[in-house]
Amino acid sequence: MSRFRRRNHEVPGLNLASMPDLIFTVLFFFMIVTHMRQTELKVRYVVPQGTELEKTGHKGSVVYLYIGRPVDAQGKVTGDEERVQINDRYVTVDEIPTAIAEARDKMSSEDRMHMIVSIHADKGTDMGLVSDVKQALRQAGALRINYSANEVKSEK
User: Fold this and answer.
1) Can you tell me the distance from the alpha carbon of 143 to that of 34, in angstroms, rounded to the nearest whole number?
2) If we measure between CA atoms, which residue out of 142, 141, 147, 134 comes closest to residue 56?
3) For the chain, which ranges sit under pLDDT 50?
4) Which of 123, 122, 134 is nearest to 96 (CA)?
5) How far apart are CA 156 and CA 146, in angstroms?
């Protein structure tokens, strides 16, 4: 019976050979599902709330127009006047038709037919400015406009 002596066995170490495969799989997963913002916001706005909301289709045919107070690179508000931003630059109300024409020129012919201007305005924005923006969009021929809002949470 001396052949079957108990030896002091230690737990074998972990095999980490497949760890790089797992890390790259998780990395590729996050690269695929992460949505990167197309434009850098230069204005701060608080999204108003609404009750009758719909999602827009044709993602390539949406031009985003932001109205709010200007912010710096760290996100701090730098002024009290409200500014209008289209694509990564500030525009005045008079420059909106030109900026919309530039955005329309970058679209495919099918997206031009379905072009929607999505207004993301701060909930405290003066309606006079929003009305001026709408008039400028009308001059630019952008007649399909929607407003961004969050759905009102009903408490039951």
Assistant:
1) 32
2) 147
3) none
4) 134
5) 29
Contact call for residues 96 and 140 (beta carbons, < 8 A):
yes
Tens of pLDDT, residue by residue over 69-79, are 888 877 788 88
For residue 128, the one-letter residue type is G
pTM: 0.67
Q: What angle do CA 23, 28, 32 make, to 5 degrees?
A: 150
Q: In the numeric block, which tokens belong to residue 136?
A: 């400028």
Q: How far apart are CA 22 and CA 84, in angstroms?
A: 45
Helix/strand number for the chain, H first, E second: 4, 8
Beta strands in 10-99 (DSSP E): 43-44, 49-50, 62-70, 83-86, 89-91
